[in-house]
Amino acid sequence: MPTSTCRHLPLGEKKFNGAKLTIRTRALSAYSSYSAAASTQRGAEYETLGRITRSIRDSTRSGASFSSLAAALHENRRLWTILALDVSNDENPLPLELKKKIFILNSFVQKHTRRVLLHEASVAILLEINVSIMKGLREGR
Questions:
Q1: Which of 45, 88, 108, 141 is deepest in the core (most CB within 10 A)?
Q2: Distance between CA 73 and CA 71 in Å, rounded?
Q3: Long-range contacts, stretch 123-130, CB < 8 angstroms, 24+ apart
Q4: What element of type H or E holds 20?
Q5: Given its phi and psi angles, is residue 17 left (phi above 0), alpha (psi -120 to 50 degrees) or beta?
Q6: pLDDT, tens digit (0-9, with 9 covering 90-100), for 23-54
Q7: What is the pTM of this model?
Q8: Which helix (H) or strand (E) holds 19?
């Protein structure tokens, strides 16, 4: 997987219905259909994490195929890659310590997902991470 950073991506803002779209919102829009509740960037992140988390949870239920789990985990990995790329952007306003934590979480999610796909680990911690981030987004942290 290439080790590209946001500096290598086109950073130009685009407008959609008069609203500026950042790299994060453009990327997230590829993975979710926005509802009225997701009209803000934080709302879009919350909705996307929720959709992916539900998908992972549903794919672990009895009768679900391994391919559905693999697809859900793939989407989760893609989302975490996007989040890590976004915080690498110098224009990202998040505090440096929070950016570091997101990079560390991304690294963990990538490695742990590999272990889950090899049947060496459970998805439980991945679900916990996503739910924790969703709580933080909901509480405005």
A1: 45
A2: 5
A3: 123/56, 123/60, 123/69, 123/73, 126/56, 126/73, 126/76, 127/53, 127/56, 127/57, 129/105, 130/49, 130/52, 130/53, 130/56, 130/76
A4: strand 19-21
A5: left
A6: 555 455 444 443 343 347 788 889 999 999 99
A7: 0.70
A8: strand 19-21
